[in-house]
Amino acid sequence: MNKNSLLRICDLTKEEIFDILHDAEAFSCSQSDWQFPRRTLIANLFFEPSTRTHFSFASAQHQLGASVENFTAQGSSVEKGESLYDTVKTFESIGFDALVIRHSQDEYFKELENIQIPILNAGDGCGNHPTQCLLDLLTIYQEFHTFEGIKVAVIGDVKHSRVANSIKEAMDMLGGEVCFSGPKEWVETDASYKDINEAVQWADVVMMLRIQHERHQETMKMSKEEYLQNYGLTKERAAMMKPNAIIMHPAPVNRGVEIDSDLVEAKNSRIFQQMSNGVLVRKAVVKRALGYAPFDR
């Protein structure tokens, strides 16, 4: 596997995380016009539906001057039974410089150890989503200018969320704290579980999660309205938050389910800022994947 691949947040050191965040910030100002000095060909291989991750990667790649191809399984040789490895090996063999991959299989990248071009993980099963984690970290850092002692409450469908796994790993590394809340059957650990009202009052960052219906084996037993009242961020719960606490959500947002619709664009919401930061972070990780050194700090 190429050393510049990004597969899991835990594969990065603390210094590497800060290098990526610094480069992302630089892309918003001093290095906004930086582009690849040579022709670069990148393919986005999405085996699951995506809007924000897919097209923020594409936006980042185009802004960096890369030639971009967007692959979907439908209409490809995958429908004829081609394996993931053979699909990826094909892109390597025909001259692509890097691949971005989202796949429903947990840790799909373990099948790709013999691939030599860099792979950027855009989400695997219920496991990892490193670039989402990095854009969340950038959003938190922009707000608080540190991670030390920052408390993040991750609330909702924790069990099926790759976002929850990645942010917990990162905040543990960077000196922050994470608690989980939501339906207890969707939270696999008791050690860091808090009741939702306690979690909202405790947190500096209230991160709501979408219900991942596509990963559930059975239909949710409560109505959308019941879920919001029991486990969602209502206006009443938002009023319990610390004065300087912020609301985050990896999106897509189910308004009126995990969060009251009026709170999505509230003064303390950073949901759309996260999306903007997604392009900056993905520019930084694509630059890193192609072997370019971090910008000077």
UniProtKB/TrEMBL annotation:
<feature type="binding site">
    <location>
        <position position="252"/>
    </location>
    <ligand>
        <name>carbamoyl phosphate</name>
    </ligand>
</feature>
<feature type="domain" description="Aspartate/ornithine carbamoyltransferase carbamoyl-P binding">
    <location>
        <begin position="5"/>
        <end position="142"/>
    </location>
</feature>
<feature type="binding site">
    <location>
        <position position="132"/>
    </location>
    <ligand>
        <name>carbamoyl phosphate</name>
    </ligand>
</feature>
<keyword id="KW-0808">Transferase</keyword>
<dbReference type="Pfam" id="PF00185">
    <property type="entry name" value="OTCace"/>
</dbReference>
<feature type="binding site">
    <location>
        <position position="210"/>
    </location>
    <ligand>
        <name>L-aspartate</name>
    </ligand>
</feature>
<dbReference type="GO" id="GO:0044205">
    <property type="term" value="P:'de novo' UMP biosynthetic process"/>
</dbReference>
<feature type="binding site">
    <location>
        <position position="129"/>
    </location>
    <ligand>
        <name>carbamoyl phosphate</name>
    </ligand>
</feature>
<dbReference type="Pfam" id="PF02729">
    <property type="entry name" value="OTCace_N"/>
</dbReference>
<dbReference type="GO" id="GO:0006520">
    <property type="term" value="P:amino acid metabolic process"/>
</dbReference>
<dbReference type="InterPro" id="IPR036901">
    <property type="entry name" value="Asp/Orn_carbamoylTrfase_sf"/>
</dbReference>
<dbReference type="InterPro" id="IPR006131">
    <property type="entry name" value="Asp_carbamoyltransf_Asp/Orn-bd"/>
</dbReference>
<dbReference type="GO" id="GO:0005829">
    <property type="term" value="C:cytosol"/>
</dbReference>
<dbReference type="GO" id="GO:0004070">
    <property type="term" value="F:aspartate carbamoyltransferase activity"/>
</dbReference>
<comment type="similarity">
    <text>Belongs to the aspartate/ornithine carbamoyltransferase superfamily. ATCase family.</text>
</comment>
<dbReference type="InterPro" id="IPR002082">
    <property type="entry name" value="Asp_carbamoyltransf"/>
</dbReference>
<comment type="pathway">
    <text>Pyrimidine metabolism; UMP biosynthesis via de novo pathway; (S)-dihydroorotate from bicarbonate: step 2/3.</text>
</comment>
<feature type="binding site">
    <location>
        <position position="52"/>
    </location>
    <ligand>
        <name>carbamoyl phosphate</name>
    </ligand>
</feature>
<feature type="domain" description="Aspartate/ornithine carbamoyltransferase Asp/Orn-binding">
    <location>
        <begin position="148"/>
        <end position="286"/>
    </location>
</feature>
<protein>
    <recommendedName>
        <fullName>Aspartate carbamoyltransferase</fullName>
        <ecNumber>2.1.3.2</ecNumber>
    </recommendedName>
</protein>
<keyword id="KW-0665">Pyrimidine biosynthesis</keyword>
<feature type="binding site">
    <location>
        <position position="53"/>
    </location>
    <ligand>
        <name>carbamoyl phosphate</name>
    </ligand>
</feature>
<feature type="binding site">
    <location>
        <position position="251"/>
    </location>
    <ligand>
        <name>carbamoyl phosphate</name>
    </ligand>
</feature>
<dbReference type="GO" id="GO:0006207">
    <property type="term" value="P:'de novo' pyrimidine nucleobase biosynthetic process"/>
</dbReference>
<feature type="binding site">
    <location>
        <position position="80"/>
    </location>
    <ligand>
        <name>L-aspartate</name>
    </ligand>
</feature>
<dbReference type="InterPro" id="IPR006132">
    <property type="entry name" value="Asp/Orn_carbamoyltranf_P-bd"/>
</dbReference>
<feature type="binding site">
    <location>
        <position position="102"/>
    </location>
    <ligand>
        <name>carbamoyl phosphate</name>
    </ligand>
</feature>
<dbReference type="InterPro" id="IPR006130">
    <property type="entry name" value="Asp/Orn_carbamoylTrfase"/>
</dbReference>
<comment type="subunit">
    <text>Heterododecamer (2C3:3R2) of six catalytic PyrB chains organized as two trimers (C3), and six regulatory PyrI chains organized as three dimers (R2).</text>
</comment>
<dbReference type="GO" id="GO:0016597">
    <property type="term" value="F:amino acid binding"/>
</dbReference>
<comment type="function">
    <text>Catalyzes the condensation of carbamoyl phosphate and aspartate to form carbamoyl aspartate and inorganic phosphate, the committed step in the de novo pyrimidine nucleotide biosynthesis pathway.</text>
</comment>
<feature type="binding site">
    <location>
        <position position="162"/>
    </location>
    <ligand>
        <name>L-aspartate</name>
    </ligand>
</feature>
